Amino acid sequence: MNIQPLIAHIEKIIPLDEAAKQDLAAKTIFKKLRRRQYLLQEGDHCNHYNFVLNGCLRLYFVDGKGSENVLQFATGNGWVADIGSLHTGQASRLCIDALEPSDVLRIAKQDLIELYVKHAAFDRYFRVLTENAFVAMQQRVLQNISSTAEERYLSFLEKYPHLAQRLPQVQIASFIGVTPEFLSKIRRNLMEQ
Amino acid sequence: MNIQPLIAHIEKIIPLDEAAKQDLAAKTIFKKLRRRQYLLQEGDHCNHYNFVLNGCLRLYFVDGKGSENVLQFATGNGWVADIGSLHTGQASRLCIDALEPSDVLRIAKQDLIELYVKHAAFDRYFRVLTENAFVAMQQRVLQNISSTAEERYLSFLEKYPHLAQRLPQVQIASFIGVTPEFLSKIRRNLMEQ
DNA sequence: CGGATCGTTGATCAACTTCAACGGTCGTGG
DNA sequence: CCACGACCGTTGAAGTTGATCAACGATCCG
Question: How many CB atoms lie within 10 A of CB A171?
């Protein structure tokens, strides 16, 4: 199993010594997902952090009316997990599944804690990682509060042009918080100009 | 200057040795704010992390139409900063000001980096802190996408009962993403039942 | 072929905003 | 001490934005 992409990603933020790399490799699990396969299902306990090698996963929430609300897409070199469930140990209210056939590296919660204790570099790496994710999430809250659906869609296109290409529209609609029907109308409006 | 509340807050997550405490104390700046005073103004560079001792600050964004959108309230033992600007060094598009007379402890960006390098405990502390903030922000995105304004208001009351007491309604409206007029109508509806 | 998935369209309806106006409270300066 | 302005909440009418529902066509794949 080749965890080189993961190591490379970490070393963009902080160098790892040999011991850290070996410990990391020892705790990394490889998993292949087919399209539509769950990595985490509502009611499960989220016990792994997941690093996506290739393919595309989504983290989403099924609300009272049964509709899916996408919180996050994760493609190559992205992380995904229900961090809330991971920390508290409570059952997850979120789902993770594969929108495309995907390859994933997983680290169990307990193993990650051991890595934190043994190698301070991992605290640093995940601190920076989470800070970046937090900023992105903050901007998204901002947009949800202050922008129209059309503005949100345009900003999605700008920010994730690669995702806009490869994802079905219905997933994008869910991410920006509108119905697929309305997104279709937004796109028509944009065409007409 | 007494930074004990800050140390106590950190030690809920990870113990600090004497050296770490002293270095922290040496880098901590005390600042008093009067009501309405800016701690960060749009266009400034955010160069400090701010720990609120008492009072209440808000982090907000002024959009194209000139309306204020609140991203975060920070009261006692809370942190506030524009982390995006802090990291990238770019000018901030956000503002921080005091809703009440407040006391704040500040740590400059450069000093914080030194603390990270010298004492791994700070990486750990801010990792956990940010993970928690991230989870909260994620839940908020979820709510914005999947709930009505009334549900968002009720959930705000549940989650921050102390804030609901002490904040003017117009700030709460801004936080949950509705106009103050509409929040007033929501409240009337809730009364009538 | 037949079903699953995806996008589109139009009609109707609900949620929320905008605007304008009004009343109450509180602090400050004259 | 009063008067004034700043700030805050409320109300109602009219307008927008976006959801819902039902229907249809296209594509893809087993």
Answer: 18
Best CATH choice for the domain A4-119 from the list 3.90.1150.10, 2.60.120.10, 3.30.565.10, 1.10.10.10 = 2.60.120.10
3-state secondary structure of A167: coil
Could you tell me where the DSSP H helices lie in chain B?
Answer: 4-11, 18-26, 83-88, 109-118, 120-146, 149-159, 161-166, 169-176, 180-191
**pLDDT tens for residues B107-140?**
999 999 999 999 999 999 999 999 999 999 999 9
Confirm if B182 and B152 have CB atoms less than 8 A apart.
no
What distance in Å separates residue B189's CA from the closest CA in chain A? Answer: 22
Question: Residues of A with CB below 8 A from B126's CB?
Answer: 127, 131
Measured between alpha carbons, how far is B83 from B45 in angstroms, rounded to an integer? 11
CA torsion sign for B127, B96, B72, A152 is: negative
pLDDT in tens, B13-37: 999 999 999 999 999 999 999 999 9
- Report domain extents, chain B: 4-119
Token representation of residue B43: 């266009």
| Residues 18-77 of A, Cβ under 7 A from nucleic strand C | 36
